[in-house]
Write a sequence for this structure.
């Protein structure tokens, strides 16, 4: 495998008035790069499961749903055994076995030479490919912002994944393109911000459907639309996001600012960048 | 400039006279409801609340079926409420502990020879109004452990399941439902004042009953008490009052009616309809799936002649509204 270049990423945990809550996101900056978002709303040891998924990705790309299922089948048991012991000690063994552990996963395998990049996505963490010259979103693994108003597909060690939740593909990275990988809250912000500044029928249709949904994300959209820099995605938003990845402090400052404006949901935030 | 929003600590208002609470409540209720209600994220800083009003009158000793067993209605309701409380704990359970996303209150009416409803927490929680989820997890009347085997990916795993009890079945005396609604309104007023500073998903009140109120002269009194609850609000929406009438005769069961004409020709069904809240649109899909109907409709949070399965379904849908806002 080729080493990864021009790559940076940050992840920070959510924080409330009682302190920092353990980060349930995990990311990996070695080839294959990955973001996994442990879903704390269901299941246990979700942060550990997200980390486990990232750390046990195969060296060769997962290119079919059967390959995904086979991979999970090959790695689930040591995780289950380890954390069942911990869960039983804490008196939560029954919940652990009943609910398992849930996480999203997006991953990209870097090619050798001039080959294409192979990617997989399961759940609502997202991969974005932007063209800075054309000022366009050339690819997003989440096809419609409205998918964020539904429960995400998640990988669990205790059962086979659903083929509906799986998507994969490949792309060749052009000179002016950059790639972002993000967990859900950050992905929502990026996609919303892009769509607000985009004039296509598809963007308008997605946003009007979201506005009609009455969902929490529609509240976020309303706040973002009236912001002074609402339409400056390529000149302000994207450079600001990439710059923030230079240090965890920068990333914290940016996410704090966006959260304060109501542009980010209360969540862990993870973002990876490469070009 | 003075900041008119004060963040009170839970319990801080317990000893403040009611007249003072009313003044603070006026300030809290002056805060407008946002344009997209029922969308607040529930966090430890901005929790939500549930109140269960449980009819414990004498008629609750009639028999009803619950998952294949014949129980008294009081036994079935107690078991179902205990299961709901356990499910709430489970949803708030994380690997490193329990997150206090909800405050819970349990109010009984009937049961004791009194005209007044009463708080039902027992043991170390006795006398408490709202209890945090983490407190529920460690304070209960009894706990039994059951050894279980689960098959996971073809492999047998052994574990121990713990079944906790907070509510004992009681069926005695009359049905002072108005008193229960008034007590709930009093608790909610304080809760709303305490949580006025945050973006809080509004509390949900479940009233589980098998009969008519015996502490009123006319229906208007009950409607006024229900209205007192429904008019309370956080910035994220009005408090929701869901009235569930259970019956061993479920042939004419109506859940979440969308129109008044769906109701049976029964004044009591009409009364419950008028007492109950309109459900938020955010839960329309689940209700429409349950009823196999158009999700664009407006649904009222009530049931008449519900069997125990319907009671569980309604509680599940009602609690899921909040649970789904507490993902992080």
């Amino acid at each position: 495998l080729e080493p990864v270049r021009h790559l940076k990423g940050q992840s920070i945990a959510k924080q409330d008035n009682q302190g920092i809550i353990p980060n349930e996101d995990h990311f990996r900056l070695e080839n294959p790069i990955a973001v996994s978002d442990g879903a704390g709303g269901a299941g246990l040891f979700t942060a550990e499961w997200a980390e486990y998924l990232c750390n046990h990705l195969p060296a060769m790309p997962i290119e079919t749903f059967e390959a995904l299922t086979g991979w999970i089948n090959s790695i689930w048991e040591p995780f289950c055994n380890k954390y069942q012991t911990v869960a039983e000690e804490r008196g939560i063994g029954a919940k652990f076995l009943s609910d398992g552990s849930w996480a999203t996963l997006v991953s990209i395998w870097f090619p050798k030479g001039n080959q294409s990049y192979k990617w997989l996505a399961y759940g609502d963490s997202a991969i974005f490919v932007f063209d800075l010259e054309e000022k366009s979103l050339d690819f997003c693994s989440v096809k419609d912002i409205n998918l964020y108003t539904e429960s995400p597909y998640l990988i669990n060690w205790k059962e086979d994944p659903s083929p509906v939740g799986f998507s994969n593909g490949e792309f060749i990275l052009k000179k002016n393109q950059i790639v972002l990988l993000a967990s859900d809250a950050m992905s929502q912000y990026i996609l919303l911000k892009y769509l607000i500044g985009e004039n296509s029928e598809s963007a308008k249709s997605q946003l009007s459907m979201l506005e009609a949904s009455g969902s929490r994300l529609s509240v976020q959209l309303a706040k973002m639309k009236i912001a002074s820099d609402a339409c400056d995605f390529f000149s302000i938003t994207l450079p600001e996001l990439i710059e923030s990845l230079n240090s965890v402090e920068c990333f914290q400052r940016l996410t704090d600012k966006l959260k304060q404006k109501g542009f980010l949901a209360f969540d862990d935030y993870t973002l990876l960048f490469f070009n | 400039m003075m900041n008119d929003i004060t963040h009170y600590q839970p319990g801080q208002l317990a000893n403040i006279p009611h007249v003072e609470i009313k003044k603070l409540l006026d300030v809290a209720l002056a805060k407008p409801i946002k344009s997209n209600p029922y969308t607040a994220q529930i966090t430890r800083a901005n929790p939500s609340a549930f109140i269960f009003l449980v009819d414990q009158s004498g008629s609750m000793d009639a028999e009803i079926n619950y998952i294949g067993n014949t129980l008294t209605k009081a036994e079935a309701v107690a078991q179902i409420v205990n299961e709901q409380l356990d499910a709430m704990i489970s949803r708030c359970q994380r690997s490193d502990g329990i997150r206090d996303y909800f405050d819970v209150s349990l109010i009984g009416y009937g049961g004791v020879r009194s005209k007044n409803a009463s708080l039902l927490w027992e043991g170390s929680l006795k006398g408490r109004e709202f209890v945090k989820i983490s407190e529920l997890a460690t304070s209960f009347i009894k706990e039994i452990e059951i050894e279980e085997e689960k098959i996971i990916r073809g492999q047998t795993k052994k574990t121990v399941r713990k079944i906790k009890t907070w509510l004992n079945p009681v069926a005695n005396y009359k049905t002072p439902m108005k008193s229960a609604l008034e007590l709930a309104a009093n608790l909610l007023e304080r809760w709303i004042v305490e949580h006025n500073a945050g973006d809080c998903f509004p509390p949900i009140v479940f009233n589980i009953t098998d009969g008519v109120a015996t502490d009123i002269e006319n229906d208007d009194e009950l409607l006024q008490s229900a209205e007192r609850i429904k008019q309370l609000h956080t910035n994220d929406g009005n408090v929701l009052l869901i009235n569930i009438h259970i019956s061993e005769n479920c042939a004419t069961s109506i859940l979440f009616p969308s129109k008044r004409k769906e109701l049976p020709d029964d004044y009591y069904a009409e009364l419950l309809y008028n007492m109950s809240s309109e459900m938020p649109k955010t839960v329309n899909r689940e209700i429409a799936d349950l009823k196999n109907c158009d999700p664009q409709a407006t649904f009222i949070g009530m049931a008449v002649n519900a069997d125990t399965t319907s009671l569980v379904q309604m509680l599940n849908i009602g609690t899921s509204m909040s649970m789904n806002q507490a993902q992080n």
User: Anything to note?
Assistant: The mean pLDDT of chain B is 91.
